[in-house]
Amino acid sequence: MCFRSRPGASASWSWWRMLRQVIHRGLQSFCYKLGLFVSRHPVFFLTVPAVLTIIFGFSLLNRFQSERDLETLVAPSHSLAKIERSLASSLFPLEQSKSQLYSGLHTPGRYGRLILLSKPGGNILHQADAILRIHRAVLEMKVNHKGYNYTFSHLCVLSSEDKKCVLDDIISVLEDLRQAALANKTTARVPVSYPNTKLKDGRSSFIGHQLGGVMEVPNSKDQRVKSARAIQITYYLQTYGSVAQALIGEKWESEFCKLMRKLQLDHPDLQLYSLASFSLWKDFHKSSLLAKGKILVSLMLILLTAMLSSSMKDCLRGKPFLGLLGVFTICISSITAAGIFFITDGKYNSTLLGIPFFAMGHGTKGVFELLSGWRRTRENLPFKDRVADTYSDVMVSYTMTSSLYFIAFGMGASPFTNIEAVKVFCQNMCVSILLNYFYIFSFFGSCLVFAGQLEQNRYHSIFCCKIPSAEYLERKPMWFQTMMNDGHQHTSHHETDPYQNHFIQHFLREHYNEWITNIYIKPFVVILYLIYASFSFMGCLQISDGANIINLLASESPSVSYALIQQKYFSNYSPVIGFYIYEPLEYWNGTVQEDLKTLSHGFNTVSWIEQYYQYLKVGNISTTNKSDFISILQSSFLKKSEFQHFKNDIIFSKTGDENNIIASRMYLVARTSENTQREVVELLEKLRPLSLIQSIKFIVFNPTFVFMDHYGLSVTMPVLISGFGILLVLILTFFLVIHPLGNFWLILSVTSIELGVLGLMTLWNVDMDCISILCLIYTLNFAIDHCAPLLYTFVLATEHTRTQCIKNSLQEHGTAILQNITSFLIGLVPLLFVPSNLTFTLFKCLLLTSSCTLLHCFVILPVFLTFFPPSKKHHKKKKRAKRKEREEIECIEIQENPDHVTAV
User: Fold this and answer.
1) Among residues 337, 326, 332, which one has the least CA distance to residue 302?
2) What residues pair up with 768 in beta bridges, in sequence order?
3) How far apart are the C-alpha atoms of 161 and 494, rounded to whole Å?
């Protein structure tokens, strides 16, 4: 029995193969014509990019402005927390209640915040007099605006009861302690409890965020404070929305921070840490200022590396200035992209620091590939034809990888991206990629034309002078002969290709290729990959989101110092969560009361409801109906001085003679550890679903929620969309490329590199914030950029064995890959010395990206490709068949001409 393949399937496969060849040859033909066109008009293609850079460079200088709103940048753009904020503000204005809604670093509006820390072993409560002197200095501080002096009393948030400035209740506690000290009383006679304490006017106040490092009296029933290390005081300013008010408020905050630095010198026994609303933005922008000089150093290092790696001993064929001009090409294209960004009303932010490195990593890859392509052309061709051949060889691959860059970052700039900083970065990166591509085939292509013309006319690659003849050189000193050596001094018949003498190419051909394909090395490479995969998988299981804004600030900044002290001493309790009941409720109903107790179980509550129930219980008053409940609430409970402040937590309405409670609020505080960020997210995820299933209609809100609401999903969505977009493109083009296995291997390689970077950066304590996500998007493209030429050259190779195919692939593309990754790694080194968390995250991620790509290109793929498909046996059979056919033809010719054999 015999089996035959269907003729239709074979015809279909042949048709697809022909279509792939037609597309590939069509693209090569187009790139050849493009190269020929550039080589015939080099001055035009050199001038146009230069003029564009000058025009847009001036716009960059004139229209530069920075983004000052951190919430717009790093908080999810579309979140339920913003809707809840609008609803809560419509019921109870946040301007009046922000002193109750404590929210750490994310306090809305303008404010000045101060932490006073005593020496180790000291008790901050014993220094009440010194703290109150500092407090009075803040109240008396003046700022001048248009001839008028403004103090805190002119700018503060006023309470609705007595129209006085809203101050933290810890000030009242300190006043009582000072009075007791003046009257020679002991601290024990002024009881201070934690976290709730009784004030002099009878009010119960929550001071969990105002007193830190607390030690309680042992076996104390009312949680009496024995000692405390730190006190936190916040001064809230009004926000009217006018430009003049904002300017005065900013001046007050600036003077507040200066005053704290001055008072620190006067109080050596206390440590003062200050924070203002502009501090976060200032320290976020400070990263750019600190990195400015280091980026210039990085550029110099890349220029030097590109020059050295493009040099040869051969003074005719070495191209050091082309390496330099290649890096210069990327620089001017980035300047043009920045100019376009600012012309379109873009605002600069520190996350854009990564764009020069991202653009350089892709652009220099094209530069080095063009140089390698030039070295592969025939030297006896005219220089214009050599440029066209170089474009035909290189620009097809570079066009494809640039297209994938554009697709990946274009997906990141889509409406699906919920983080504005990521969206702005991806938009700018798309423009940079397009301009990179245009500048490389135009500006750098023109430079290649001029360099080729100099080489054809035998001009020195550095000094641009005619290379003397061999007879003339023989009469000169050895140093002169070395400088003027054109590579043919000792090979009169040109037996070898002079371009093969490039030191990287020589190292790969003579040493590395033989070593990596050695059968004894392969088991160690397999073990290395298993270790790599294990650590990557372990890291991927420990991913954590980076909602902590400290990750984006300069590391040695006041904001970071303040945040670390705040986290250490004031993280016992979560931010104060506002619990808003926005529909009428039967508060007098026993079932409702039980539901409210259930919802607030486990929280420290600041609630008028709880206090009112306690008031009724102590007075033995029964309120079983609505009229009694509201009547006693209004006429008795809220009239007492210790409960008057609860008027702000209830909204009454009157329908005829009947009063109703249409909305109310209370505050919930949870006990937390130092990892407050994660626990706040968990609280939000637990409380919000309860509002949908409970009979009580409520919302929960704290300003911190705006930055954390579904942050993990929002920040990972861009890389998922970009990865899906690239995967879809590679799958759809599976049957349009020359060999489908090339796409298959490329998908595997990129996945391995991406997961490796993700896992290793997690083990290196890098959180998933906007910077690391942008680096992961870049990793997808960086891996494709370097692996694709290597893989496609391998699958299309026609040598007898896979080993020989991978050797040829490394020899053809290994030089450009090694040049680019080396330049990229050296350019990253200065980032290590920038004292900024943002740049340190950027350094870590890009270092892992380039290292994992280098590992795959030079270690993992060269070994694994010798184990797995595509098989090269059919090429061997084809060559044998051709050889046999040639022998048969020769035999036929001999049989037809026997006289020829006799003559021989």
Assistant:
1) 326
2) 545
3) 98
